[in-house]
Design goal:
Layout: E1 5-9, H1 14-25, E2 29-36, H2 47-61, E3 65-69, H3 71-87, H4 94-113, E4 118-120, E5 126-128, E6 131-133, H5 151-155, E7 157-158, H6 166-175, H7 197-201, E8 210-213, E9 219-223, E10 238-239, E11 246-251, E12 256-260, E13 267-278, E14 287-292, E15 300-305, E16 308-316, E17 322-327, E18 330-337
Parallel strand pairs: 1-2, 1-4, 2-3, 4-7, 8-12
Antiparallel strand pairs: 5-6, 6-18, 8-9, 9-10, 11-12, 13-16, 13-18, 14-15, 14-17, 15-16, 17-18
Helix pairs in contact: 1-2, 1-6, 3-4
Family: Belongs to the MnmA/TRMU family.
Subcellular location: Cytoplasm
Enzyme class: transferase
């Protein structure tokens, strides 16, 4: 594998920078590539600083710097899709879309068309014989967001920091003398910036104050816009009675949010999935698997059979989110939770 040309997606952060440094140290022909994504005019974002940090990393490592503008693709495939989902009252997962459509879609295609043998990113995940595995650092593991990665792209992608702990990555950044070794990790969606999701979405869809109702349909409080809420949520709305109350239903057509004092009323025994994607051929069905319906939640046991998932115990899920399936550390695939 030594000597191959590898395009590393540089975000300006430390994880992708260390990935590039490790690959160069291994003797590869490394190219640093910065992906420019869509940014709304009404929000301040750090993309200029991130781009400059990526350029500085390339200079420090003495590797070529390339830039690819995927703004249009990002706006269409990620932002517009996210806004449409919120308008339908479901909670999307833009990180999954970004990985599938941009990093391992448009960027991968561009890199291979420009001479790359492989691509690499700073994601915390591992691969083994075309399998996708959790990262060694379970607190940073990002395999949940990668289950929709196109198989061809996954087979030609390296995750150099996937076998490292975050502290080891920081130490490596210092050892390599990287200019962003002390840079804090990024938080949230860059294109949303410092504004609230409510203010961002209000630029695209109607987000209006509405009524909070109980399970009997009685008005008991107010919310800031039904599209903003997620099943299981217990903050961001007011009620006439002392709580806590949990969101158990959302109706954007009437702009109402239904709540209950019982958290278990938000849980389901089974769900149906759409856009199911298996890594390789997937398991023999029906299969006993562990699943995550949210990033970083503790996996729970379930049985999957086609597009139906039956939980061992009732579990809170949100339409639009990804339900990702595992067998120990191996990510088997997943799907999008249906309404």
């Amino acid at each position: 594998m030594n000597g191959q040309k590898i395009f590393v997606g540089l975000s300006g952060g430390v994880d992708s920078a260390v990935s590039a440094a490790l690959l160069k140290e291994q003797g590869h022909d490394v190219v640093g590539a910065y992906i420019k994504i869509w940014q709304p005019e009404f929000i301040e974002c750090t993309w200029r600083e991130d781009r400059l940090d990526a350029m500085r990393v390339c200079a420090a490592l003495d590797i070529p710097f390339r830039e690819v503008d995927l703004s249009d693709e990002y706006k269409k495939s990620v932002v517009d899709a996210m806004v449409r989902d919120y308008a339908r009252g479901i909670t999307p997962n833009p990180d999954v879309l970004c990985n599938r459509k941009i990093k391992f879609g448009a960027f991968a295609q561009w890199a291979f068309a420009n001479g790359a043998d492989l691509i690499a990113t700073g994601h915390y995940a591992r691969t083994d014989n075309k399998k996708l595995l959790r990262a060694r650092d379970t607190a940073k593991d990002q395999s949940y967001f990668l289950y929709q990665t196109p198989p061809v792209a996954l087979a030609n992608t390296l995750f150099p920091v996937g076998g490292m702990l975050k502290a080891e990555v920081r130490d490596a950044a210092k050892r390599f003398g990287l200019p962003n070794a002390q840079k804090p990790d990024s938080q949230g969606l860059c294109f949303v910036g410092e504004v609230s999701m409510r203010d961002f979405l209000a630029r695209f869809i109607a987000v209006e104050r509405g009524v909070v109702v109980d399970l009997n349909g009685n008005g008991i409080g107010h919310h800031e816009g039904a599209a903003l809420y997620t099943v299981g949520q217990r903050h961001g709305f007011s009620t006439d009675s002392e709580g806590p109350y949990y969101v158990v239903g959302i109706d954007v057509s009437t702009n109402t949010v239904c709540v209950s004092p019982r958290r278990e009323d938000a849980a389901k025994k089974s769900v149906r999935l759409q856009e199911v994607q298996w890594i390789n051929d997937g398991p023999t069905l029906p299969a006993h698997v562990s699943v995550q319906a949210r990033y970083h939640e503790t996996p729970v046991q379930a049985i999957v059979d086609g597009s139906t998932v039956d939980f061992e115990l009732p579990h809170i899920v949100s339409a639009g989110q990804s339900l990702v399936m595992y067998k120990r550390d191996v990510c088997l695939g997943g799907g999008v939770i249906s309404q």
